[in-house]
Design brief:
The chain is mostly helical and 374 residues long. It contains 14 helices and no strands. Helix 1 packs across helix 7 and helix 2 runs antiparallel to helix 10. The termini are far apart.
Length: 374
C-alpha cells in the first residue's frame, strides 16, 4: 500500500532517473553518434559522463530545489514558464517516439493519432496519481525490464566482430567534442533531480543517487553501442532509425520458444519512454501549479495533456520540427540550465559564507561581553 505522503526513497529516485535517461538515449543516441563520428562515438558516450557529473555536483552543492529557488525571486514566472515548456516539449517528443515505435512494431497500420492520444491520456492519469505512485510502479518494474534487456545484450554479444570497432580516433577533437555535447544533452535529463528534491525522504542523498543512476545509464549505453558497432558496423548503424530495436528482432533465444521476442523487448522502451513522458508532463504541471495555485488540478493536467499532444503532432507532421527542437535543446536549454545551476550554487555558497560570518561575529561579541563582566 502507498503511504500517500508524496515522498520517495533513494532507490525509487535512482530507478526513475535511470528509466528517464535510458529509454530515449539507447533509442536515439547510437544512430545519431554513428552519423556524426562513427566508431569514435564510444568516446563521446564515455566522456560525456564528466560534464554530467559536474552538473550533479552543482545539484548537490546548490542546496535548494527549483521550487525553492523560484519561491522568493523575480525569476519565478520566466523560470516556471521556461521549464514548464521544456517539460511539454520533452514529453511531446517522447510521445512521438513512443507512438512511432508502437505503430511500426506493435500495432501496425493503426492510426498514429489514436495511439498517441491514448498514451497522453494514460500519462495524464499517471501524473494525477502523484509522484509516489509513479515511483513505486517503476521500482517494481526495474528488474522485470532490465534483466531481459541484459540477457538479450549478452546473447547478442556472441555475434560481435571486434574488427568492426577499429580504426578509432579518426575524427578531430572538434567533431568528438560535438558528439560529447550531444551525449551530454541526453545525460542532462539527470538535472530533473532539481525538481525531485522536495519529494525525497533523504534530500541529502540526492548527489549519490544521481551519480549511481548516471553510471548505470552510461554503462548500458556504452555496451549497446559496442554491440551495435560489432554487429552492423558504423556505416549500417548510421543508416538505421532505431538500431537497438532492429538488434532485438535479430537475437534468437535458445530453444526458439519465443518467436517474436522483439515485440516483448519493445515493451522495455515502452515503459522507459512512458516514464520520460510522464516526467515531462508532471514537472510542467507542477511548475504551472506554482503560478496558478493549488486549485483546478484537473484543468491544469488537461492543459498539459493538450499541449503535449500538440508537441507530439509537431514532431510527427511538421518538417524540420525535430531538428529545430534538437538544436534548441543544444543552444538554449542546455546553457540556460547549467547557468541556473551555477547561479543557485553561487548563491548558496554566499549564504553559507554569510551564515558562518554571522556565527563568528556572534561568538566574538559574546566573548567580549564575558570579558567585560569579568
Amino acid at each position: 500500500m502507498f503511504s500517500d505522503n508524496q515522498k520517495i526513497s533513494d532507490r525509487q529516485m535512482q530507478r526513475l532517473l535511470i528509466f528517464d535517461m535510458l529509454g530515449i538515449s539507447t533509442l536515439v543516441l547510437p544512430g545519431l553518434l554513428a552519423k556524426m563520428i562513427g566508431k569514435d562515438g564510444i568516446f563521446a558516450l564515455g566522456l560525456a559522463l564528466i560534464p554530467a557529473l559536474l552538473v550533479v555536483w552543482l545539484l548537490e552543492k546548490g542546496g535548494s530545489s527549483l521550487q525553492e529557488f523560484c519561491a522568493h525571486d523575480w525569476l519565478k514566472v520566466p523560470l516556471c514558464l521556461f521549464y514548464g515548456l521544456e517539460g511539454i516539449l520533452i514529453g511531446g517528443y517522447g510521445v512521438f517516439l513512443l507512438g512511432d515505435m508502437m505503430v511500426k512494431n506493435l500495432v501496425r497500420d493503426e492510426s498514429f493519432y489514436l495511439v498517441t492520444g491514448l498514451l497522453v491520456l494514460l500519462a495524464g492519469y499517471g501524473i494525477r496519481q502523484g509522484m509516489e505512485a509513479r515511483a513505486r510502479i517503476y521500482e517494481i518494474l526495474f528488474w522485470i525490464l532490465l534483466i531481459p534487456l541484459l540477457i538479450m545484450l549478452l546473447l547478442a554479444s556472441g555475434d560481435v566482430d571486434t574488427n568492426l570497432w577499429t580504426p578509432v580516433v579518426t575524427h578531430g577533437w572538434w567533431s568528438v567534442g560535438q558528439g560529447i555535447i550531444v551525449a551530454f544533452l541526453f545525460y542532462m535529463i539527470v538535472a530533473f533531480a532539481f525538481f525531485l528534491k522536495p519529494y525525497l525522504v533523504h534530500p541529502e542523498h540526492l548527489g549519490i543517487c544521481c551519480r549511481r543512476s548516471l553510471l548505470v545509464v552510461v554503462g548500458i549505453n556504452c555496451a549497446i553501442y559496442l554491440i551495435l558497432l560489432g554487429i552492423f558496423g558504423s556505416g549500417a548503424l548510421a543508416a538505421m532509425e532505431t538500431p537497438i530495436i532492429t538488434l532485438m528482432s535479430m537475437v534468437k533465444l535458445p530453444g526458439g520458444f519465443l518467436e517474436r521476442q522483439d515485440v516483448f523487448m519493445v515493451g522495455i522502451w515502452f515503459f522507459a519512454l512512458y516514464a520520460l513522458v510522464n516526467t515531462g508532463m508532471f514537472y510542467a504541471s507542477e511548475l504551472t501549479r506554482t503560478l496558478w495555485g493549488k486549485g483546478n488540478a484537473n484543468l491544469r493536467i488537461f492543459c498539459m495533456m493538450v499541449l503535449t499532444m500538440l508537441a507530439a503532432m509537431g514532431s510527427y507532421q511538421v518538417k524540420g520540427w525535430n531538428e529545430t527542437l534538437f538544436w534548441l535543446q543544444i543552444w538554449l536549454v542546455l546553457p540556460v540550465s547549467i547557468l541556473l545551476l551555477a547561479v543557485v550554487f553561487v548563491r548558496n555558497m554566499r549564504s553559507a559564507g554569510g551564515s558562518c560570518s554571522q556565527n563568528e561575529n556572534g561568538v566574538h561579541m559574546k566573548s567580549e561581553e564575558e570579558k567585560g563582566e569579568k
